[in-house]
Design brief:
Its EC number is 3.2.2.27. GO terms for molecular function: 4 iron, 4 sulfur cluster binding; metal ion binding; uracil DNA N-glycosylase activity. This is Type-4 uracil-DNA glycosylase. The structure is a single chain. The chain has 248 residues and is of the alpha/beta class. The protein has a single domain, classed as 3-Layer(aba) Sandwich (Uracil-DNA Glycosylase, subunit E), CATH 3.40.470. It contains ten helices and six strands, in the order H-H-H-E-E-H-H-E-H-E-H-H-E-E-H-H. Strands 1-3-2-4-6-5 form a six-stranded mixed β-sheet, with helices on both faces. The longest helix is centred in the middle third of the chain and has 18 residues. The chain binds uracil (URA). Uracil binds next to loops.
C-alpha cells in the first residue's frame, strides 16, 4: 500500500503516524491485565453444571433466524434487554466481524457496534479497506448483559446456534474477532488474547479462517495498543488474500 495512503488510514484509527517504523515492528511484549474487553484476564471459571445445548438453527433462513433470535427467552438476560441485536451488514460479505455482546447503545438501537467502540471499529475497517457496509457484523450474544458484564458461559452456549447459522449463511472468507471474550467463545479456547493474536485460527466445524485482535473498547482505553491492532489488521488482510478465490 502507498505510504501516504497508509498514513491516512492510520490517522483515521488514531494511530500517531510519527512513530519510528522500528517501534511499530518491534517484538510484542506480553500485554498487561485489563478489566474488560481486554487481554490476559483470569480464565473463565469452568461451570460445574453442563452447558445448555445450542438451539439447532442449521436449516433456518435469514428471516427465520432473525425471528428465532427476536423471540428467544432461553436466558434471564432476555428479560432485561430492550431488544435483541441480531447482526448487520452485507449478508454475502467476504469479511465477518464478531464481537462480544451488545452494550447500552446497541441495546437501544438494535444494531451491533454503534457506540464509541463502534466508531473506532468503523475506522479500523476503513483503514484496512473494508468499510463497515461491506462486512457482516455480529456478536456472540444477541442480548445485552446487564451493566455490560462479561457473558456467562451458559448464555454463550444458548446463543451459539444463532451465531453458527449466521456464519454458515454469510460463508465469509475471513472472520475478524475482536476481543478476548469473543475469541475464546468462538474458538472454544481458554487461551489469553496475547496468544491468540498473530495466528490463523479456524472456527470449529466450519473451518472458516479466523484472525483475532483487540476489542475497540479496549483500544479506546489503551490507545497505545492501536499500533498492534494495526499489525493484526494487516495480518488479517494477508490471511484473507491467502484464502480468497482468484477471480475467474
Ligand atoms: N461491544 C461488542 O462486543 N459488541 C457490540 O455490539 C458493541 C460493543
Amino acid at each position: 500500500m502507498d505510504l501516504q495512503v497508509r498514513k491516512r488510514y492510520m490517522q483515521a484509527m488514531g494511530i500517531p503516524v510519527w512513530m519510528p517504523k522500528a517501534s511499530v515492528e518491534e517484538e510484542i511484549p506480553p500485554a498487561p491485565p485489563f478489566s474488560k474487553g481486554g487481554v490476559d484476564m483470569p480464565l473463565p471459571v469452568v461451570p460445574s453444571s453442563p452447558l445448555p445445548v445450542a438451539p439447532d438453527c442449521s436449516t433456518l433462513s435469514w428471516q427465520d433466524l432473525r425471528t428465532a433470535v427476536q423471540s428467544c427467552t432461553r436466558c434471564a438476560i432476555s428479560k432485561t434487554r430492550t431488544q435483541t441485536v441480531f447482526g448487520t451488514g452485507n449478508q454475502q460479505a467476504a469479511w465477518m466481524v464478531i464481537g462480544e455482546a451488545p452494550g447500552a447503545e446497541e441495546d437501544r438501537q438494535g444494531e451491533p457496534f454503534v457506540g464509541k467502540a463502534g466508531q473506532l471499529l468503523n475506522n479500523m475497517l476503513l483503514a484496512i479497506g473494508m468499510p463497515r457496509e461491506t462486512v457482516y457484523i455480529a456478536n456472540v450474544l444477541k442480548c445485552r448483559p446487564p451493566n455490560n458484564r462479561d457473558p456467562h458461559a451458559d448464555e454463550a452456549a444458548n446463543c451459539r446456534g444463532y451465531l453458527e447459522r449466521q456464519i454458515t449463511l454469510v460463508n465469509p472468507t475471513l472472520i475478524l474477532v475482536v476481543g478476548r471474550i469473543a475469541a475464546q467463545n468462538l474458538l472454544q479456547t481458554t487461551a489469553p488474547l496475547a496468544r491468540l493474536r498473530g495466528q490463523e485460527h479456524h472456527v470449529p466445524v466450519s473451518g472458516t479462517p479466523v484472525v483475532v485482535t483487540y476489542h475497540p473498547a479496549y483500544l479506546l482505553r489503551q490507545p497505545s495498543d492501536k499500533r498492534k491492532a494495526w499489525q493484526d489488521l494487516l495480518f488479517a488482510r494477508e490471511v484473507f488474500a491467502r484464502h480468497a478465490q482468484p477471480p475467474l
